[in-house]
Amino acid sequence: MNANDNRRLTDVSAGTPMHQLFKRYWIPAGLVSDLPTPDCDPIRIRLLGQNYVAFRDSEGRVGVLDELCPHRRASLMLGQVRGGTIECIYHGWRFRTDGSIAAMPNCDDAGMLRRYHANAYPVREAGGLLWVYLGPSESEPEFPRHRWMDVPDSNRHPRIVATRSNFVQVMEGLLDTTHLAVLHQDSLPRADGTVKVVNNVVRPANRFSNVSTSSKVPRVEVLETGFGLYSAALREAERDGQALKDVRITAYVAPSTIYVANGNVTLYSIPVDTETTYLYIIYGDPEKPLAEEPYLAYVERGTGTEPEVAARWGFSRETLGCPGAISIENRWGQDREKMRRGESYSGLHPFSMEDAACTSSMGPVSDRQELLVPADLAIVRMRRYLLEAADAVARGAPAPAFDSLQHAYRVAAIYAEIEPSADWRELAKGETTAA
Ligand code: FES
Ligand SMILES: [Fe+2]
Questions:
Q1: Residue 333 neighbours by CB distance under 10 Å
Q2: Domains annotated on the chain, with CATH
Q3: Ligand 1 atom nearest residue 104's Cα
Q4: pLDDT for 334-370, tens place per residue?
C-alpha cells in the first residue's frame, strides 16, 4: 500500500476523512460500569484524538461533554457531580447532561446564562456499554440494537484490550484467518480431536476444530454489501465419507465492527487516537450465562482476556504505556525457555495477548510495505472498503449503513458445511436481505 493511502486509512485525527467517517456512527465510549452510580466521579473519554468528559447525574442520566470547560478551559474531569450537574471547580459553572448551564457564579447576566452552553453529545447505554454519537446532528443515525445487547447481563461479557496500535491493524488481525493455526496453536484443540489443557482450562474439541487448526490453505472469498463485507474462508471437508465445503464467514460492519469466531463474539476496534486502540470484545449468548462459571473460564481464561493479565501485560486501559508494563522491550514476557523446550509455540499468554503482541510489534502504525498472498484477500478488501467509505463521506455522500434496523439486529458470523458445488453467498444473502 502506498504511503498516502496508508495515511488516509489510518489517520483519525480531527479534519481527516477517517475522523469524519467515524463521526457518522454510534461508537462505544466505555463500559456502563465506568459510571457505576449517580453522582459518581466523572471520567475522561478519549476518542478519535479528542477528549470528552462523561458523568452520571443525580437522576442516573449520562452526559458526555467536551472535556474542557467552555469558560476558561479547565478540565471538567476535575469537577464535582451533584444536583443534576457537573460543576467546574475553577469558577463553579454548572452544566447539565444536555450541555445547558444551570449556574455561572461569576456572571449575573441572565442572557449569557441562556445563550451559553457546553458541547454535549447524544449518549446511550446498551449491552453494558456506553455509546456516543459525535457527528453533526442532522446526520445522526437511529441507534442500532444488536442481538447481543438483548441477552441477560449474566449471559454477556464485555472486555476491553488496549493496544498501542492503529485501529485498522487490530481489525486486520481479526480478518486474518491463517494466523489462527500458527500463532494460536497452543490454545486450539488439535486437528486429531485430542483435548489440550491450556492456561488451566480444558478446551474440548468441537466441530470447528479441524477447520480452525487446519494447516490447509483456505480459499478466501469476499462479498461486498451496503454495510460492509462478508468474508468466507472455504475449506474442503468430509463427513461420513461425503465431500463437503466447510464455510466460515466473518462479517465486517463499517467502520470497525467484526463478527467472528464461534458465533457469539462481537468485536469493536475503536480508535482512541491514531496510535491507540481499544478493542471491545463482547461475548453474548442467549442461553449460556457466560459471565458466570463454568462458562467464564472458557470465554475469559481460555482466551486470555482476564483483566489482571491484560493489566500485567500493559494491555489494559489503566496500564497501557505505563513504565514497567510488559512491552516490546521485554517481548511481552515471552517465555523463550518454554519455546525452546517445545512446550509453547508463541511463548505468550494465549489468544488476546498473542494478538496484541504481534499487532503492537508492527509499530503503532504499520507501514504496510507487505508481501501479501491470496489468503490475505479479506484484509485488502476491508482496507479498500474503508477508504472508499471515508472518501464518500468527504464528498458529502452517506456512510455505509444497514438497510434496516432489523438487519442490523440480525447480522452475524455464519458457519456451515455445504455441498461442494453450492455457493456460500446464498448463506450470506439470507442475512443481507432486509427483514
Ligand atoms: S474554567 Fe470552568 S468555570 Fe471557569
Ligand atoms: Fe488472533
A1: 16
A2: 26-139 (2.102.10.10), 147-432 (3.90.380)
A3: 3
A4: 999 999 998 899 999 888 889 999 999 999 999 999 9
